[in-house]
Amino acid sequence: MADLNVNAVGANRAATGAATGAAASPPATAQQSLGQQDFLQLMIAQLQNQDPFKPMENGEFLGQMAQFSTVNGITELQSTVESLAAQFGATQLVDATSLIGRQAMILSDRVPGGEARAASVDVPAAGPLRLRIEDANGSLVQTLDLGERAPGRADFNLPPLPPGDYRLRASLGQGQGATALPVAVAADIRGVALAGDGSGNTQLELEHFGSVSLNDVRHIRQET
User: Cα–Cα distances in Å, from 146 out to 46, 59, 122, 126, 183?
Assistant: First the structure.
C-alpha cells in the first residue's frame, strides 16, 4: 500500500513539473508580473501538490506570505511617492510663475554684451577683489578693481559692453597669491517649466542663458 502511495506522489510531481515547465515558457504577450490574486493561486497549487510525506511547515508558509506582503507594500509605497512627487512638482511650477519678470543670479563665467548687468562674488576672506573681463579670444577688455571686501557676498555691476561674448575672471588677493572665485551674474527670468526627465524639478527659462534648474539659482532679485 505504501508503494502505491509513493507512486501516486511521483505521478503528482511529474504532473506538477510538466505544468511548471509549461508555465516557464509563456507566450511573448503573457503577463510579466504577478498580482495578489496570482500569488494566492500559486500558494493554493503549492499546497495541493506538496509532498504528503514532507508537508510545508507553518513557518515556511508564513514566510512566503510575509515576503509577498513586503514586496506588495514597497510597490504601493513607490506609487504613492511618485504621485506625491508629481503633485509637488506641479505646485512648485505654479509657485515659480511668480518669478517671471525677476532676475536669477546664476554662476557663469560667460556673459553676453549689452547693457549693465548685476553680478556678485562670495568672498571667503577679507582682501582686495578684482574682476577681469576678456573677449571671446581671451584678450583683456577691462579690469574692475572692486576694492577691499569683507567676507560675505560682494555685489557690483558689470559695465555696458559692446555686442559679443565675454568671460569673467574674479580674483581675491594680489599677485601669485590671488585666489580665483566664481562669479554670479543676473539673468532675466522669461518663463518656467518642469524638467523633462520626470524628476519634477522646476526649470527657469533665462534670457541669453537658456534653461537652468531652480536648484542652481543662488538668489532671486527684483529686476531694476
Answer: 80, 75, 13, 12, 13
pLDDT, position 23: 46
Contact 164, 112 (CB under 8 A): yes
The C-alpha cell of 176 is what? 601669485
Distance of CA 197 to the CA centre of its chain: 8
Residue intervals in the chain for CATH 2.60.40.4070: 102-221
CA 210 to chain CA mean position, Å? 19
Question: Which grid cell sits at 30?
Answer: 503573457
Record the pTM: 0.58
102-221: CATH topology is Immunoglobulin-like (2.60.40)
pLDDT tens figures, 54-93 = 665 555 656 666 666 676 666 666 766 665 555 555 566 6
Least confident range of 30-34, 35-39, 58-62, 195-199: 30-34
